[in-house]
Amino acid sequence: MSNKNNIQSLFPILKSSVNNNKLVYLDNAATTQKPNSVIAEINKFYLKENSNIHRGVHHLSQVATKKYENSRLVTQNFINARHSHEIIFTKGTTDSINLLASSFGQLLKKGDEIIISEMEHHSNMVPWQMCCERSGAKLKIIPCNKIGELDLDMFNQLISNKTKIVSVTHISNSLGTINPIRKIIEISHQKNVQVIIDGAQAAAHVKLDMQKLDADFYCFSAHKLYGPTGVGVLYGKENLLNLLPPYQGGGEMIKDVSLLKTTYADLPHKFEAGTPNIAGVIAFKKSLDFITETGLGNIKTHEDKLLDYATEKLNSIKGLKIIGTSSDKSAIISFIIQDIHHYDLGLLLDKMGVAIRTGHHCTQPIMKKFKISGTSRISFAYYNTIEEIDHLILAINKAIKMLS
Ligand SMILES: *Cc1c(COP(=O)(O)O)cnc(C)c1O
After folding, report:
1. Which of 45, 103, 146, 384 lies deepest, with the highest CB count within 10 Å?
2. What is the Cα–Cα distance from 45 to 256, expressed in whole angstroms?
3. Does residue 342 share a domain with residue 277?
4. Is 27 near ligand 1, meaning CB less than 6 Å away?
5. Which is the closest atom of ligand 1 to the Cα of 169?
6. Is residue 96 located within the same domain as residue 230?
7. What distance in angstroms lies between residue 318's CA and the mean position of ligand 1's atoms?
8. Residue closest by Cα to atom 12 of ligand 1
9. Distance from C-alpha of 171 to C-alpha of 204, rounded to nearest angstrom
10. 135 and 266 co-located in one domain
11. Residues 6+ apart with CB under 8 A from 134
12. Are residues 134 and 233 in the same domain?
């Protein structure tokens, strides 16, 4: 950990000043900052390699295609998927889940049921509500307890032979809870139900192994893994992806088109209609390289240290209450402070250079459950330091004085 300064120096934006203070960036659950290697790769693509993929016989198209497909191989490796064609590139987690909800929606009928949880991001809630409206299927909700853990007894009661899909988040973006997804997958598979995992908050923090985990589908966004915005991953088991109807029609996803009838391309292209974010996908490889070279074990150890330290320091602030206190948590802390609105706190911290998130974090139902309108949320990445947490605590204490 002694080389933390060197890590920060890989991320040029972290040198910025905000309101005359050095930036302390603690909004990593919303998006992470990008290392030089990712920024340089995007630049290089547009300077030297720009071309459309899969279609051209010319040199540039072949270079771009090769690099794009190499990102797929690196992603396959990163999550230990069995086949590279089980990796579908999308625009992000939201896009991946919409793809699934839309495609599954065509196979569902009245009487079928879908199970999600109370702590889902709106991205893993609204698409299923829409899917239910279209198909006549019913949405069932796993509740969570006072400390922000899923109620597995209730899940066992909810799941039945009517259940077709279970879709839950690996890590809650507003509470930090790491859900027991292996157990959820096991229970679901005993009933022959397919499981979708929203991994948006997990992929940068815990080692993923699709073959061990046995999830049927797993979704995440590059921009939360030190990568570019506008790139996402949908992992799906080959046989299941083959069964699903395509999501969007267009170029790239076809085998043969005549005026009235089309046959679809094989995986993964069946689900990648149109020109994708080529530069983004290519640069995504660099962010995966960064994580792999750093080591997810080292990342987790460091972030757990930050989590423990910050939890202890925050708990010592009078009137502050942490929302989400599961014993199994990732690098996210949500809190409220008595008589202080999270929005006011966020504004004052920003004046002191500290970037945090305030509001409902796209999880309004869980906020309603805790009877609050929102929280202040801090979330860590590998480049954050103990010193930054000290600065945060000082800033919060200052803000409390100013607001009370
Ligand atoms: C960020 C997030 C999403 C949505 O990701 P996008 O990149 O905005 O599509 C979904 N679920 C969780 C848990 C998230 O944290």
Report:
1. 384
2. 31
3. no
4. no
5. 13
6. yes
7. 32
8. 200
9. 11
10. yes
11. 105
12. yes
> Rounded to the nearest whole angstrom, what is the distance from the C-alpha of residue 243 to the centroid of ligand 1?
26
Q: What is the pLDDT of residue 56?
A: 81
- Ligand 1 atom closest to the Cα of residue 93 is 9
**pTM (two decimals):** 0.97
| Mean residue pLDDT across the chain | 96
> Domain residues for 142?
39-293
Q: Which of 293, 314, 348 is the last residue of a domain?
A: 293
Is 53 among the domain residues? yes
User: Catalytic: 132?
Assistant: no
Which of the following is catalytic: 131, 132, 219, 362? 362
Instruction: Give residue 173 CA to ligand 1 midpoint distance, Å.
Output: 8
Contact 310, 377 (CB under 8 A): no
33 is a domain residue = no
- pLDDT at position 3 is 53
CB distance 221 to ligand 1 below 6 Å: yes
**Residue with CA closest to ligand 1 atom 8:** 94
3-class secondary structure, 146: coil
- The residue assigned the tokens 């009235």 is 260
Q: Is the CB of 135 under 6 A from ligand 1?
A: no
Question: 355 and 369 in one domain?
Answer: yes
**What is the number of structural domains in the chain?**
2
- Between CA 380 and CA 361 the distance in angstroms is 15
Q: Do 217 and 316 belong together in one domain?
A: no
Within 8 A by CB and 6+ apart from 103, the residues are: 244, 245, 246, 247
Of 274, 293, 312, the domain-final residue = 293
d(CA 368, ligand 1 centre) in Å: 20
Residue 32 lies in a domain: no
* Residues 164, 66 within the same domain: yes
Token duo for residue 222? 């590059």
Check if the beta carbon of residue 171 is closer than 8 Å to that of residue 330: yes
- Cα 3 to averaged position of ligand 1 atoms, centre (Å): 30
Q: For residue 189, what are its two tokens?
A: 């598979």
In a domain, 34, yes or no: no
Q: Which two tokens stand for residue 46?
A: 């547009």
272 Cβ below 6 A of ligand 1: no
Per-residue pLDDT reduced to its tens digit, 36-93: 999 999 999 999 999 999 988 999 999 999 999 999 999 999 999 999 999 999 999 9
- With a 6 Å cutoff on the Cβ, whether 201 touches ligand 1 is yes
**What is residue 5's predicted lDDT score, i.e. its pLDDT?**
59
Span 347-388, pLDDT tens digits: 999 999 999 999 999 999 999 999 999 999 999 999 999 999
Give the CATH number of the domain where residue 15 resides.
3.90.1150.10
